[in-house]
Write a structure and sequence with these properties.
It is a single chain. By secondary structure, this protein is mostly helical. It folds into two domains: 133 residues, no CATH class; 52 residues. Helices cover 80% and strands 0% of the residues. The protein contains seven helices and no strands. It is globular. The chain starts with a helix and ends in a 5-residue tail after the last helix.
Length: 190
């Protein structure tokens, strides 16, 4: 039963989410929490790990949760579920795109999906920030923690580097180096 549940849950996530992995995060978070497969903290930790490992975020997340809940076959079912809708949609688009690419309805649909994807990504970022800093509820004491200011500084610096079109690999490497240096220097819990 768990295999079918994993497949159907991740099939739904793959089918109803546009805009990539981070746009999927709110739906993944909702479904995973609803099923009791992970906690908010575990989701946040896995987002960090997923970004450090090769492969798309949603596939990494589906594979991880599938493995945790159903072993290797669970990983296969969850991963197939999240990938299959995109595969089917891309096949259909490839077949019909030339015929409909100038259609006003198709153009309007694509135009409408862009802001929705941006909103979903912003929602995911806000959800992760709340989990990271306000897991026990909002408290001004978070502004007394070194971790908060380090996170804010890294976020600002990395945003500036991204806007200056610094290569993403350099930004990721710099983020990891800063995290390691501050983690060891300040003996932060990892």
């Amino acid at each position: 039963m768990i295999y079918l549940k994993l497949f159907l849950t991740f099939f739904e996530i793959g089918l109803f989410t546009f805009g990539g992995g981070y746009a999927m995060l709110p739906l993944i978070q909702s479904e995973v929490l609803k099923n009791g497969w992970l906690t908010n903290t575990e989701i946040m930790n896995f987002v960090a790990v997923s970004e450090s490992t090769p492969g798309p975020f949603a596939i990494n997340m589906a594979t991880f949760i599938g493995t945790e809940k159903g072993g290797v076959f669970g990983a296969f079912c969850a991963t197939l579920g999240v990938v299959l809708p995109s595969f089917i949609i891309i096949l259909l688009v490839a077949v019909f795109y030339e015929k409909f690419k100038k259609n006003k309805v198709v153009k309007g649909c694509m135009t409408g999906l862009r802001p929705a994807a941006i909103g979903l990504i912003a929602s995911a970022a806000l959800s992760l920030a709340i989990t990271a800093f306000f897991e026990d509820g909002f408290s001004l004491s978070v502004f007394n923690s070194v971790e908060f200011y380090i996170s804010a500084a890294v976020c600002v610096i990395m945003t500036v580097l991204a806007l200056k079109k610094v290569h993403p690999i350099k930004i990721i490497t710099a983020s990891a180096a800063v995290g390691i240096i501050f983690g060891y220097a300040l003996k932060l819990p990892l």
